[in-house]
Q: What sequence folds into this?
């Protein structure tokens, strides 16, 4: 069974023009042209790395829509058996956000909600998120966010797990939370939260797996075996680049299956 990529996006031209994207493109060596893949090029990258399903994110920030839910829906139509969506909402419009989750996030095509805290400069325990958390619980879908330092030249503090995500997990014990981008440099805080809260997960997006922090790899082989999911942050990193040196991690067969596919299929309700 192929892998599941839990963090990807098919960037639009307006997202590709955002000034905060430039450092990410520079670090990944992609500065020659705007990074705007197509659904077809995304499928080709998936096939090259044996990825069965990719979760495509919509993006909304203070400047407005960067990738709309409607655009993600259109992208999924290209290959409905290979793509699922993560919806986005406007934190400044709480009732509109609740209605979008009720109307759009069905757990089958749109299987979760993603909001990126650094984009808003608002940590996840800010009151503006709370209606969204309640709507995710009602819909029975995960809330996906970013943890750890930022790639863009913006504040990292919003991605610190404790106290910000801890407050959320305490206030919403039924909420499933998936933290993307590993959580470095706060790996100890990440491990602490996964032990404390059974509904907290993490993905490895934005990292080629051979560059994962050693403490995180140890976590994957121990208490994190059922909590860590594969992600890329496509198109900034391709699945092939992320997984090229997977064997170096030394995962056993069970740990490898859970990481690449099993945890994501269970948490997001994907077909097995």
A:
């Amino acid at each position: 069974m192929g892998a599941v990529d839990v963090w990807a996006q098919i960037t639009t031209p307006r997202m590709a023009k955002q000034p905060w994207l430039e450092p990410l493109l520079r670090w990944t060596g992609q500065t020659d042209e705007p990074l705007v893949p197509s659904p077809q090029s995304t499928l080709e990258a998936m096939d090259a790395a044996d990825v069965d399903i990719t979760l495509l994110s919509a993006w909304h920030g203070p400047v407005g829509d960067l990738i709309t839910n409607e655009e993600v829906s259109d992208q999924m139509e290209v290959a409905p058996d290979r793509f699922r969506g993560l919806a986005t909402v406007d934190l400044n419009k709480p009732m509109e956000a609740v209605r979008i989750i009720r109307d759009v996030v069905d757990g089958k095509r749109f299987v979760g909600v993603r909001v990126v805290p650094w984009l808003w400069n608002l940590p996840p325990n800010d009151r503006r998120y709370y209606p969204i958390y309640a709507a995710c619980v009602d819909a029975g879908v995960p809330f996906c966010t970013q943890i750890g330092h930022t790639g863009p030249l913006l504040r990292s503090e919003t991605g610190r797990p404790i106290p910000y995500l801890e407050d959320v997990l305490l206030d919403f014990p039924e909420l499933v939370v998936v933290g993307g981008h590993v959580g470095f440099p706060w790996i100890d805080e990440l491990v602490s939260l996964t032990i404390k809260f059974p509904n907290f997960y993490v993905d490895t997006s934005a990292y080629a797996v051979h560059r994962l922090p050693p403490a995180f790899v140890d976590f994957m082989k121990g208490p994190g075996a059922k909590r860590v999911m594969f992600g890329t942050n496509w198109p900034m990193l391709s699945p092939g680049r992320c997984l090229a040196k997977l064997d170096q991690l030394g995962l056993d067969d069970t740990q490898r299956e859970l990481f690449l596919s099993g945890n994501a299929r269970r948490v997001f309700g994907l077909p097995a």
